[in-house]
Structure formats: structure tokens, C-alpha cells
Write a structure and sequence with these properties.
The chain is α/β, with parallel strands linked by helices and 334 residues long. It is built from nine helices and 16 strands. It has a seven-stranded mixed sheet with strand order 7-6-5-2-9-10-11. A three-stranded antiparallel sheet has the order 12-15-14. The longest helix is centred in the C-terminal third of the chain and has 17 residues.
Length: 334
């Protein structure tokens, strides 16, 4: 990777006991996110998930965030903003990280907290985020640096990074140039390049997240092109999801986004997974299909896998079947 990250946690030397998952919610706070209403909508939806509330149509909602899971919050525009959410604080304390080339986590305590113990801190922060950035003129957002920050925060533990993004990342690691006229590439050999990352860094981030047991999910609400071919490699490699809300409009999309986010945190989810399929003699797996990282031919690595995911495996014969064995009445089924 061209950019590095530093984790405060030493690498584990013994098998880890299963623990509840940590979620890091990362918010784009650039001008586009404020103007479209995505930031305010996402914060309101999270508050109802954590603590319940009333929907715009007057329907009461109970809290549904899983007990025991940790929550961290990160915001970003041209810099990274980390928050200490410790329950002994009256309000979240902010640490700004301006160096996007060597990202590190400036916190050892308060990065991930129980949302019920830190209710005052989290409620105050999520309720104030939109107003705090309401007058911003910053039109860029360093998504690559934010993902590297999430990787540094969760390295050695695993977890789930949930990103709300409104603009193409044109600053920091993985910065992308504005797209050329795509219509000139339709129907040509170059058309397939539209579905591939334009910067190798996005694939590197995706593979490192998967290897560290970190899944990434993105909620995209933009009014202009955001190059999903590049940034979308991260969710698809780590077992996450990409939720697409073009030209985001709260009056139209708020209910859908809130429902998707609620499903994301309530469905059965495992993280930091490795899967291997063992076959009988004469069979082998020739190909896997799904959202995962295949570092070795025999293993499938997933940052997260949930109740809505499926993985397909193609079996292949490695030797000719004997008809006498197939018809001996043994009842073997392939």
C-alpha cells in the first residue's frame, strides 16, 4: 500500500475468544453530504436504532442495537476526525488528524464504547454533527484515509466499518480524478475498465481489511458520479454491502435508508471468518462466487458474513466415475 496505518494493538499470539462485533460509523461531512441531507438522515436513523424514537410518520420504534456490541464514530472531509466517546465525559472530545499519508488512531480509550453506557456522549454528538458542519464550504472527502483509519482502529480485533459517502474521493490515499466521458467507451474493449478500480490502493485496502477480519459497508448518496468501480471493490471483497441512493432526497429516501441500516445491525452477522470446503475423493472446488477475499485457492476470507449473504462453490470431478460404483446400490449422492 502507498499509505500506511499504525495500530496501537499488538498482534495476537493466541486464539481469540469470540466477542461481540464493534461497529465504526464513518460520516462524510463535506458540503455535498450536508446539502443533500444524507448526514442528518443517517444520524437520525442511528439515534433511533440506538435509543428508539418516533418516525416521521409517527410510528414508535424500540431500540434494536445488539447488546454488548461496541460503537465508534469517525467523520471526515479534508481531514479525519476521531471522537472520544467515554461515558465519563459530558460530551465527545474531538481529535483532528490532518496527516492523511500516515494514518494512526490517536485514542487508546473511548474509541469503541457501549452505546447504552455512553448515551449522553453519543446522543449529543450525533444530534450536533449536522449543525456543526452546516456552514462548511469543504467539497472534498478523504474516503481512502477514512477506511485506513478504520483498518487501524479495528486491526487485530475485526469488526464492521459502515460508511456514509456523498462525493468522489479526490483527496488523500486513493484520490481519484474526475471521470472522462464514459459514452466514448461503450461497446469497446475499454468498457470493462469502467468496472475496475482505477487505483490499486482500493484493492489493497479491501484485501487488508478482509485479512484483518473487517467488513466494510457503504451507503452512497451522491448527486454526481462517485466511481463505484473503484471504491466498490472494498465492500465486495470484505463481505459488506453497497447501498446506492443516487441524488439522495430525504423525503424520498429516508425511510429506505433507515430500514436498510436497521436490517444491517439486527440480522445475524459473523465477522473475521475463514471458510474452507472439504470434498470427497475425486472431487475438488474449481471456483467460488460471492463477496469475499480469496488469498489462497483453498480458503475464503470474509470480513463479515450475514444472514442475507450466499456463497456459491462449483464442484469439479478430478477422476472418471466408475459406473459399477455408481450403480452398486450404495446410495451415494454427488
Amino acid at each position: 500500500m502507498t499509505s500506511t496505518y499504525l495500530s496501537a494493538e499488538p498482534p495476537p499470539t493466541t486464539p481469540r475468544q469470540p466477542k461481540p462485533i464493534n461497529y465504526l460509523f464513518a460520516f462524510d461531512v463535506s458540503f455535498e453530504a450536508i446539502e443533500s441531507g444524507l448526514l442528518r438522515t443517517a444520524c437520525d436513523a442511528l439515534l433511533r436504532i440506538f435509543y428508539g424514537g418516533i418516525t416521521a410518520s409517527g410510528v414508535p420504534l424500540d431500540p434494536c442495537f445488539p447488546r454488548g456490541c461496541g460503537v465508534g464514530i469517525l467523520t471526515f472531509d479534508q481531514t479525519l476526525h476521531f471522537y472520544n466517546l467515554s461515558p465519563n465525559l459530558s460530551q465527545a472530545s474531538l481529535i483532528v488528524l490532518a496527516d492523511l499519508e500516515e494514518v494512526f488512531v490517536p485514542l487508546r480509550d473511548g474509541m469503541f464504547v457501549d452505546p447504552y453506557e455512553s448515551r449522553t456522549t453519543i446522543e449529543g454528538l450525533l444530534s450536533a454533527l449536522w449543525e456543526r458542519h452546516n456552514t462548511t464550504t469543504t467539497r472534498v472527502a478523504c474516503l481512502g484515509a477514512a477506511l485506513i483509519g478504520g483498518l487501524a482502529a479495528l486491526a487485530g480485533h475485526g469488526g464492521h466499518v459502515v460508511v456514509f459517502q456523498s462525493t468522489m474521493p479526490t483527496i488523500g490515499p486513493g484520490a481519484l480524478e474526475p471521470l472522462i466521458d464514459e459514452s466514448q467507451m461503450y461497446g469497446t474493449e475499454k468498457e470493462r475498465t469502467l468496472f475496475l478500480p482505477r487505483d490499486r490502493l482500493w484493492r489493497d485496502i479491501a484485501e487488508e481489511c478482509a485479512e484483518e477480519g473487517i467488513g466494510v459497508t457503504m451507503f452512497l448518496g451522491m448527486s454526481k458520479s462517485i466511481d463505484i468501480g473503484s471504491i466498490g471493490i472494498v465492500p465486495s471483497t470484505t463481505g459488506g454491502d453497497t447501498y446506492f441512493h443516487p441524488r439522495f432526497k430525504p423525503s424520498r429516501d429516508e425511510v429506505v435508508l433507515a430500514s436498510q441500516l436497521r436490517r444491517l445491525v439486527t440480522r445475524t452477522t459473523a465477522y473475521n471468518c475463514i471458510m474452507r470446503i472439504r470434498c470427497s475423493h475425486g472431487l475438488r472446488i474449481s471456483k467460488y462466487y460471492g463477496n469475499f477475499h480469496e488469498r489462497f485457492p483453498t480458503d475464503v476470507e470474509l470480513g463479515v458474513i450475514d444472514a442475507d449473504k450466499a456463497i456459491t462453490a462449483v464442484f469439479e470431478h478430478t477422476r472418471t466415475l466408475d459406473e459399477r460404483e455408481a450403480n452398486d446400490g450404495s446410495g451415494h449422492v454427488i
